[in-house]
Amino acid sequence: MKKIKLNDEVIIITGKNKDSTGAVIKVLDSKVLVEGLNLAKKHVRSNPNAGVTGGITEIEVPLAVSNVAIYNSATKKADRVGIRTNKDGIKERFFKSNNEVIV
Protein backbone atom coordinates (compact mmCIF):
# COMPACT_ATOMS: atom_id res chain seq x y z
CA MET A 1 0.00 0.00 0.00
CA LYS A 2 1.38 3.39 -0.98
CA LYS A 3 1.56 6.15 1.59
CA ILE A 4 0.58 8.95 -0.81
CA LYS A 5 -2.40 8.37 -3.08
CA LEU A 6 -4.47 10.23 -5.65
CA ASN A 7 -6.38 13.30 -4.34
CA ASP A 8 -4.37 13.42 -1.08
CA GLU A 9 -3.62 16.90 0.26
CA VAL A 10 0.18 17.22 0.41
CA ILE A 11 2.64 19.89 1.50
CA ILE A 12 5.98 20.44 -0.23
CA ILE A 13 8.85 20.26 2.26
CA THR A 14 11.81 21.28 0.05
CA GLY A 15 12.52 23.36 -3.03
CA LYS A 16 11.21 26.59 -4.50
CA ASN A 17 7.59 25.81 -3.57
CA LYS A 18 8.36 24.94 0.07
CA ASP A 19 5.36 25.10 2.47
CA SER A 20 2.85 25.14 -0.41
CA THR A 21 -0.08 22.73 -0.32
CA GLY A 22 -2.01 21.11 -3.14
CA ALA A 23 -3.88 18.00 -4.19
CA VAL A 24 -2.15 15.07 -5.89
CA ILE A 25 -3.27 14.76 -9.53
CA LYS A 26 -1.22 11.74 -10.55
CA VAL A 27 1.02 9.23 -8.78
CA LEU A 28 3.96 7.78 -10.69
CA ASP A 29 6.44 5.20 -9.33
CA SER A 30 8.56 7.51 -7.19
CA LYS A 31 7.09 10.87 -8.23
CA VAL A 32 3.83 12.75 -7.77
CA LEU A 33 2.13 15.48 -9.76
CA VAL A 34 0.70 18.22 -7.52
CA GLU A 35 -2.03 20.54 -8.78
CA GLY A 36 -0.79 24.08 -9.50
CA LEU A 37 2.71 23.57 -8.08
CA ASN A 38 6.20 23.03 -9.55
CA LEU A 39 5.33 24.74 -12.83
CA ALA A 40 7.69 24.86 -15.81
CA LYS A 41 7.38 26.73 -19.10
CA LYS A 42 7.10 24.69 -22.27
CA HIS A 43 7.43 26.05 -25.79
CA VAL A 44 4.65 24.64 -27.96
CA ARG A 45 4.63 24.70 -31.75
CA SER A 46 1.32 25.61 -33.34
CA ASN A 47 -0.58 22.87 -35.14
CA PRO A 48 -3.60 24.14 -37.08
CA ASN A 49 -4.79 20.61 -37.92
CA ALA A 50 -5.14 19.73 -34.23
CA GLY A 51 -6.36 23.22 -33.28
CA VAL A 52 -3.33 23.94 -31.08
CA THR A 53 -2.07 27.50 -30.91
CA GLY A 54 1.65 28.01 -30.45
CA GLY A 55 3.35 29.87 -27.66
CA ILE A 56 4.73 29.38 -24.18
CA THR A 57 2.55 27.36 -21.80
CA GLU A 58 3.03 26.38 -18.17
CA ILE A 59 2.87 22.70 -17.27
CA GLU A 60 3.11 20.87 -13.94
CA VAL A 61 6.31 18.88 -13.51
CA PRO A 62 6.45 15.79 -11.25
CA LEU A 63 8.02 16.05 -7.78
CA ALA A 64 9.90 13.29 -5.99
CA VAL A 65 7.82 11.58 -3.30
CA SER A 66 10.59 12.30 -0.79
CA ASN A 67 10.03 16.06 -1.26
CA VAL A 68 6.36 16.00 -0.26
CA ALA A 69 4.57 14.99 2.93
CA ILE A 70 0.90 14.40 3.59
CA TYR A 71 -0.87 17.41 5.11
CA ASN A 72 -2.76 16.87 8.36
CA SER A 73 -5.62 19.40 8.46
CA ALA A 74 -6.22 18.81 12.18
CA THR A 75 -2.72 19.89 13.21
CA LYS A 76 -2.12 22.17 10.17
CA LYS A 77 1.30 20.56 9.63
CA ALA A 78 3.06 17.94 7.57
CA ASP A 79 2.69 14.48 9.04
CA ARG A 80 4.03 10.97 8.67
CA VAL A 81 1.85 8.11 7.47
CA GLY A 82 1.57 4.69 9.04
CA ILE A 83 -0.17 1.57 7.74
CA ARG A 84 -2.02 -0.83 10.02
CA THR A 85 -4.62 -3.56 9.75
CA ASN A 86 -8.00 -2.84 11.33
CA LYS A 87 -10.30 -5.35 13.06
CA ASP A 88 -11.84 -6.46 9.75
CA GLY A 89 -8.42 -7.33 8.30
CA ILE A 90 -8.35 -4.35 5.93
CA LYS A 91 -5.23 -2.19 5.68
CA GLU A 92 -5.72 1.49 6.48
CA ARG A 93 -3.50 4.56 6.48
CA PHE A 94 -3.27 6.76 9.57
CA PHE A 95 -1.49 9.89 10.77
CA LYS A 96 1.37 9.03 13.14
CA SER A 97 0.90 12.18 15.26
CA ASN A 98 -2.72 11.66 16.32
CA ASN A 99 -3.62 8.13 15.07
CA GLU A 100 -6.52 9.42 12.93
CA VAL A 101 -7.43 7.34 9.89
CA ILE A 102 -6.79 9.02 6.53
CA VAL A 103 -9.94 9.05 4.44
Biggest sheet: strand arrangement: 6-3-2-1-7-8
- Give a count of the beta strands, DSSP E runs of length 2 or more: 10
- Kindly state the percentage of residues in helix: under 10%
Runs in which pLDDT lies below 50 for 5 or more consecutive residues are: none
What class would the helix/strand composition place it in? mainly beta
Radius of gyration: 17 Å
**CATH structural class:** Mainly Beta
| Oligomeric state, counting identical vs distinct chains | single chain
Q: Give a short account of the largest sheet.
A: 6 strands, antiparallel
Shape: elongated
pLDDT averaged residue by residue: 95
Question: What percent strand?
Answer: over 45%
Pfam families: KOW, ribosomal_L24
Protein name: Large ribosomal subunit protein uL24
Subunit structure: Part of the 50S ribosomal subunit.
Function: One of two assembly initiator proteins, it binds directly to the 5'-end of the 23S rRNA, where it nucleates assembly of the 50S subunit. One of the proteins that surrounds the polypeptide exit tunnel on the outside of the subunit.
Task: Describe the secondary structure blueprint for this structure.
Blueprint: E1 9-12, E2 21-27, E3 31-34, E4 39-44, E5 55-60, E6 63-64, E7 68-72, E8 77-79, E9 81-85, E10 91-95
Antiparallel strand pairs: 1-2, 1-7, 2-3, 3-6, 4-5, 7-8, 9-10
Describe the structure.
One of two assembly initiator proteins, it binds directly to the 5'-end of the 23S rRNA, where it nucleates assembly of the 50S subunit. One of the proteins that surrounds the polypeptide exit tunnel on the outside of the subunit. It comes from Ruthia magnifica subsp. Calyptogena magnifica. This is Large ribosomal subunit protein uL24. InterPro entries: KOW, Rib_uL2_dom2, Ribosomal_uL24, Ribosomal_uL24_KOW, Translation_prot_SH3-like_sf. Part of the 50S ribosomal subunit. This protein is mainly beta. The protein has one domain: SH3 type barrels (Roll). It is 0% helix and 46% strand. It contains no helices and 10 strands. It has strands at residues 9-12, 21-27, 31-34, 39-44, 55-60, 63-64, 68-72, 77-79, 81-85, 91-95. A 6-stranded antiparallel β-sheet has the order 6-3-2-1-7-8, with no helix packed on it. A two-stranded antiparallel sheet has the order 4-5. A two-stranded antiparallel ribbon has the order 9-10. β1 and β2 form a beta hairpin. It starts with 8 loop residues before the first strand and ends in an 8-residue tail after the last strand. The model has no long low-confidence stretch (mean pLDDT 95).
